[in-house]
What does this fold into?
Amino acid sequence: MSTSRRSLRYHCQLRQSAGERRAETHPLTWRFREDGALIGLEEYVEKDGYAAVREVLGNQSPQDVIATMKEANVRGRGGAGFSAGLKWSLTLQGGDLPRGYLVCNADEMEPGTFKDRLLLEQQPHLLIEGMILGAYANNSCFGYIFLRGEYIEAARALIQALNEARAAGWLGKNIAGSGFDFDIALHTGAGRYICGEETALISSLEGLRANPRTKPPFPGQSGAWGKPTVVNNVETLCNVPAVMRHGAEWYQGLSGGLSDDGGTKLYGVSGRVNRTGLWELPIGTSAAELLDRAGGIRDGRALKTWLPGGGSTGFLLPEHLELALDFDTIGEYGSRLGTGLLTVVTEEQSVVSLVRNLEAFFARESCGWCTPCRDGLPWTLKILQSLERGEGEQGDIELLEQLASDLGPGKTFCAHAPGAAMPLESSIRHFRAEFEAGIAHERRAAHEDPIPAGGV
Amino acid sequence: MNDTASFNAQSAIATDGDGFVLHEEDRDAILHERDHYEQPQAACIEALKIVQKRHGWVPDGAIPAIAGVLGIGVANVEGVATFYSLIFRQPVGRHVILVCDSSSCFLTGFDELRDAITAELGIDFGQTTADGRFTLLPVCCLGACDRGPALMIDDDTYGPVPPDAVAELLKEYA
Ligand SMILES: Cc1cc2nc3c(=O)[nH]c(=O)nc-3n(C[C@H](O)[C@H](O)[C@H](O)COP(=O)(O)O)c2cc1C
Ligand code: SF4
Ligand code: FES
It folds into this structure.
């Protein structure tokens, strides 16, 4: 491989030195090596790995694990922020019920999100340990890691780690002498953002088109092949070993009063800043602190607006930088924490063009099941394209507002459409003048100068 | 009536006639995958990927072949094969370039990167170079947003890729 090719190769990087990361404060990343190399089984076990499995399996009941997880209140890191412990307490189990499945959502495709990749590529055993504990709590007989097809490096790391764990008896029959059986298979995807939606992910796992399913029944009642199925994000599951090892109270304390939520969060920054990257910080850390760690905006420019957690979250302003980046706080300001990876937009960048880019993504990635999503998003995109070209007409902004409302929560089978509505609605709310600047015409008859169909 | 019958006959010939034969190794790999799941349908996507790995794409004849091995309906395989963006139903070049067109890359120079690639190769998204070397496709956020603009060539992810580095990088892929 030539040097030019090697120097352009992407390497996922944590921006914190080993000195800053300790077992007591950085449950997700304290084992990470400075050189960013994969942590194999031996090193993982040396650094307290699989200790939680050894402690919990056979010594605590599944109900104890669920109770601890509920108390720790680990909120879903896939973006929705639902308590993992609460979800697990709703999984059907016991009596004559068949044992179900535990599925790790590693489909990471939310625009602006690159956190799960780090955990998978450098420390796959932490995820496996979290999955064993999750499976124990939920009485799952088998686990799947649903990994997006493009994550080749992560697939390599996971295959190696699964083999190592199986050979060492951490997977398979009678794990650590506890009598509990559980194994995991890696399932790699073949594209399409919608596979990350948990019910679509189950459809895809079953080898079907990735159409979401109606809820209820929730996956915990009837998921993969009709069995109780728990779907959790990579980062969520990676929190479980430390919670079980050190307890709910310790976990709650990690946020140090910055948030009502406990634990840390793998935060990140992308866009035109000086030092993009990832940091594990107490949940509730402010965006101002993150921007600071990212070395501020490039070229001395000013911040215009930012997305707190991916393309399906709402735009926030510089005045919101001091807010705690947690689920409840960000939710109060017309946005969502989402994945917690900031996308930074600078003063010279056009909000209309960015929203056009986002809606093109959502239009392309719609699974096509619901009318507002399938038809509303291409329509939204066409209006945005004409505004971007300065060829919009009177009434376009009101129409976009109507579309954002029609795409909103409760009108479609899944949260894809509401996810598309959020940046649309919030961008108009904050930057109406930019949209107005794209209007050049009075309202015209519908088919005068039509925008050709297709090409979306 | 007659027209329909002859049309069906022709398409049947076209399917059989593309001479697709499932490689024995691939057949075994598909059967192995099948055992990971409760139902054979679940191995369908993996089966398509196995075929694609060998042929570069999924020819029409592979659809009934996979359906046969898994014991599921042809339409169940076809429906899946047309849904997923990384399953190619047309021949592709020796190398597939996936350029991230999502938001963070858009903010860090996607337009310039795309222009550099399309100029270098003389093709647009969805096309293959006349020499069969490259196919160019857009892709959702590659999870490399901290180093945008990002792209993948075959199994390798690159970023940030400055427009003036494109020619040199592509030279590496014969
Ligand atoms: C369109 C769409 C895409 C999603 N993509 C992902 C994803 O890639 N990874 C993920 O963990 N969750 C994703 N989610 C959220 C999942 O539906 C689900 O809430 C999550 O996997 C649950 O795990 P958690 O509670 O641990 O966060 C997506 C949701 C929607 C609506
Ligand atoms: S909201 Fe969109 S992506 Fe979700 S089920 Fe409906 S059409 Fe599919
Ligand atoms: S937006 Fe391009 S890699 Fe994430």
Summary: Chain B touches chain A through 51 residues (CB under 8 Å). Chain B has eight helices and four strands. Residues A 111-112; B 100, 102-105, 141-145, 148, 150 surround FE2/S2 (inorganic) cluster (ligand 3) (CB under 6 Å).
